[in-house]
Write a sequence for this structure.
């Protein structure tokens, strides 16, 4: 049963009279009331996390793995209540809810399995050599330890997999760092249910109080107080460029600056080669229409730019792209604010000089939207930097290039991306080597002959990229390597074995 309160460690707390309500974006009906966290509750949550850190970080990897496995079991134990709450707060269908729950549970179990090995420590040992001349060589062991309490911000578009018990929380807990979650106000009920599962798992497995807290907030105040609290040592964020950059700047201005691992905006360019346009342009256009409309375009890897090369087959490609998109019914966006931002961004781009509107989304009631497609030449795309800004929703831009040389020049002007896709034929491979080289310096993941939507959770995945896709392109927020964000190296010199951690 939902309480609308904050989890401050093991305690349910509601000190504030400031209340907001969750809203069903499909019906716009208000559901449940939630208490905003006060500054006092934030301070208590961080203090409990600090107090828990030494004990939790000293837990064996097996103990932490057991905790993660138990969280997964507790989430599954929430049953239909979690699925129905998810759907009411997101407007997503039940199939999406079940799929995302499976991914969330899978992530937790994957990190549990991983830390049962020694690989997560990334250890390296230099053996001592007392007979080395002119000076003896010390024995040095380099290993990894957790950085300390971490603040995690829930994402609007993934109420489970990128939120309360999502990849940031799972990887931080696996590393040995306590977590304080700032819940996303679009799905606070989903967040509270998952938080209750984590708290139950912590109690069952003997974890210290403060290993996890969950705070509500529908304003910037809770996030600001959390990021600037001296007890927080790192931040995980998934969301917009504006919000991610604001958190990054806050953390940098602290007396003790801390890392902010923010995954932000991306337009995820897709290159459709000249041979592809001629041989299977209609097929690829159909796939792209499905991809940029998927989930009302509310995926961080949605293809917001399509580069085409050459003119032969282009008109048929455009016709199929528009036709396939128009066959997709209106879909519900996550909340009114996101729909308003979509409409504003779409209008700004559509009104830009040299833009041709190929397909304009219809006016829909409530928070429902349909897909929109515009077209521009590569020359005008390069000259207008604003055209690279993400329009979060079912929107894509067709950028036409006459040849590969023009394409490469356009790619060279791109900002950092999460993904870049290349749709091409074998006979073109030799001519595309420079294109691929350019793309690898622009994106964290390069995809061949497939759509960018969908992110495999695996040890080989990179979900990040050069700024503004993320604040640190050396790290991923998806997959096993995400744990590296919450670890730091430390060297032990000439230590006896029994004193090593």
């Amino acid at each position: 049963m939902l309480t609308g309160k904050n989890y401050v460690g093991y305690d349910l707390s509601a000190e504030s009279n400031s209340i907001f309500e969750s809203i069903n974006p499909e019906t716009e009906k208000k559901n449940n009331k939630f208490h905003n966290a006060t500054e006092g509750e934030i301070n208590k949550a961080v203090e409990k996390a600090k107090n828990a850190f030494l004990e939790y970080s000293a837990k064996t990897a097996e103990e932490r793995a057991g905790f993660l496995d138990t969280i997964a079991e507790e989430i599954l134990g929430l049953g239909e209540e979690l699925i129905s709450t998810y759907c009411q707060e997101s407007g997503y269908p039940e199939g999406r809810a079940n799929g995302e729950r499976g991914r969330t549970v899978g992530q937790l179990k994957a990190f549990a399995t991983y830390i049962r090995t020694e690989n997560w420590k990334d250890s390296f040992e230099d053996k001592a050599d007392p007979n080395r001349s002119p000076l003896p060589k010390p024995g040095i062991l380099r290993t990894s330890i957790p950085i300390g309490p971490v603040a995690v911000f829930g994402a609007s578009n993934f109420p489970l997999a990128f939120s309360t018990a999502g990849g940031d929380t799972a990887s931080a807990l696996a590393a040995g760092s306590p977590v304080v979650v700032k819940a996303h106000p679009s799905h606070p009920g989903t967040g509270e249910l998952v938080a209750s599962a984590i708290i139950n798992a912590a109690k069952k497995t003997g974890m210290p109080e403060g290993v996890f807290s969950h705070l509500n907030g529908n304003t910037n105040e809770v996030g600001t107080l959390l990021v600037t609290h001296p007890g927080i040592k790192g931040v995980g964020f998934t969301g917009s460029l504006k919000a991610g950059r604001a958190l990054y700047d806050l953390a940098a201005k602290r007396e003790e600056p801390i890392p902010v691992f923010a995954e932000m905006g991306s337009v995820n360019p897709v290159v459709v080669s000249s041979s592809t346009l001629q041989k299977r342009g209609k097929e690829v256009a159909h796939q792209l229409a499905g991809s940029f409309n998927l989930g009302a375009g509310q995926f961080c890897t949605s293809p917001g730019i399509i580069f085409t090369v050459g003119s032969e087959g282009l008109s048929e490609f455009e016709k199929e792209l528009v036709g396939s998109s128009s066959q997709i019914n209106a879909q519900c966006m996550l909340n009114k604010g996101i729909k308003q931002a979509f409409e504003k961004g779409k209008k700004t781009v559509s009104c830009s000089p040299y833009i041709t509107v190929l397909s304009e989304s219809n006016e829909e009631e409530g928070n429902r939207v349909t897909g929109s497609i515009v077209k521009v030449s590569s020359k005008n795309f390069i000259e207008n930097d604003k055209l690279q800004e993400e329009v979060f929703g079912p929107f894509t831009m067709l950028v036409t290039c006459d040849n590969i040389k023009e394409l490469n020049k356009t790619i060279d002007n791109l900002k950092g991306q999460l993904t870049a896709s290349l749709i091409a034929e074998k006979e073109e491979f030799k001519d595309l080597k420079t294109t691929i080289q350019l793309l690898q310096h622009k994106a964290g993941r390069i995809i061949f002959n497939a759509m960018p939507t969908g992110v495999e959770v695996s040890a080989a995945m990179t979900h990040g990229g050069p700024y503004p896709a993320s604040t640190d392109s050396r790290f991923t927020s998806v997959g096993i390597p995400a744990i590296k964000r919450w670890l730091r190296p430390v060297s032990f010199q000439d230590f006896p074995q029994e004193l090593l951690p």
Remarks:
- The CA atoms of residues 251 and 492 lie 29 Å apart.
- The mean pLDDT is 96.
